[in-house]
Task: structure prediction
Amino acid sequence: MRRRNRKERGARTIIALFFLGWLLTAFRAGAANPHVGTTGFSFLKIDAAARSDALGDAFVAAEGDINSMGVNPAGLATIGRTVGTASYTDYLLDTQLGFVGFGKRVSTKNFWGAGIRYISYGKLQKTDKEDPTGEGLPSFRAGDWALQLCLGRAVSKRLFVGGALKAIYSKIESYSSDGYAIDIGLLLKVPIAGLSVGASALNIGFIRRGYSPGVQEVLPVNFKLGFAYRLAHLPLLLLGDMNLPNDNDPYFCVGGEFTIARMMFLRAGYNSLYDELGEGASLSFGTGFLWRNYRIDYAYSRLAELGRVHRISLVSEF
Result:
């Protein structure tokens, strides 16, 4: 009995310290945020998974999904089996984004995961002062990638924690940059049926080498706090996140997933980050189909005049 009480007190202490640190750091990031879009490696802010994108990027408290490794590594601890995933995004203009991930439960408490994310900006035209159109100059390519290793751990039946290490690399023509970052997260099943809360801090780290000597870029840090609530008498999952990035104003996102016959999913989401673009840019939609141990997800969004974005993901349990 005493051992159980000590364990519960320890869990409460972890929760209190995590949320206190999250709030203090997030408040500081939000207060010291006079710039918008000033960070490097901005591809880390783009959601690679179709399910979470269709839900408006509201995913920090989601359970049982391998794609939690990109939002809250603590969610990995709620997965029961070995899982693999692959995603493809047809992004704006000629930009294409891909992600491959794998995770395996190694003990009753621990779940390991690994993933690699890559973005290609297509073929770009070189220009200079003498030839601003670039007609007489060669073209070049640019791309970024990030490799991450994750661990989700169950502290108790209700409390889960997680962390991830990231190695990041970017190349534009003959110029390159690299950096390292960590993600940390927490997921708690509160004593209310169907309700979970989560928090995470993403991309905390540094850029080891910038594109140019003496130029120090900053990683796109984001602090997330949110909930997930599965209704008791309706096959509907509701999610909501609050975001505090270091290169933009705070914004929120919400989403809902309706399950049909345990094999089809209808999803919709809203992300206030894109309100200024207008023309429904804040909305996203998607669907999913489950067959045996395979799930295929699709998401659609339209960033106003910038163009349409299509995402497709495949998730498989082994």
